[in-house]
Amino acid sequence: MSIALGNSGDLQVELIQQHDDQPSAWRDRLLSGQEGLQHVSSWLTRAEYDATLSRLRSTGVAVAQEGVVPGSEVRFAYFGVSDDANSLMFEIADVMEPMIHSRMKLIAEASRDWCCLSH
Predict the structure, then answer these.
(1) CA 28 to CA 23: how far, in whole Å?
(2) Does residue 119 sit within a domain?
(3) How wide is the angle at C-alpha 20 spanned by C-alphas 18 and 22, nearest 5°?
(4) Residue 93 sits in a domain of what CATH number?
(5) Which residues span the domain enclosing 110?
(6) How confident is the model at residue 86 (pLDDT cuts 50, 70, 90)?
(7) What is the C-alpha separation between 104 and 95, in angstroms, rounded?
C-alpha cells in the first residue's frame, strides 16, 4: 500500500492506495462501489490506545481491521459506526507518542505554505 499525508490547517488528510487483493477495510469499501471519505481518526498515546481498544472490545464493538504501520510501528484499529458496509469508519491510532507525533507536526508545518506559494 501507499499512503500520502498532508494537512489543511490542523486537519490531516490521508490518501491510501492498496496494491494487492488482500482483504481490508479499504478494499471492501471500493468493492462496494464507494469512494471518498472512509474514516476519521482519533490520535492516542500507546497507553490510551490499549485502554480504548480493550474497552471497546469488552463492550462488544467489533474491530473491522487493525494493524501496524511498518517503519513507524503506529498501531491502528478501524471500527464500523453502523452495520452498513458503506458507512464511515472510526479509527484509533497510537500517534501521540513523542517520536511519532513530532513527524506528524513536520507534515503539518510543511503543508502550511502549500496554498500560498507564488510562481
Answers:
(1) 7
(2) no
(3) 100
(4) 3.10.180.10
(5) 2-114
(6) low
(7) 8
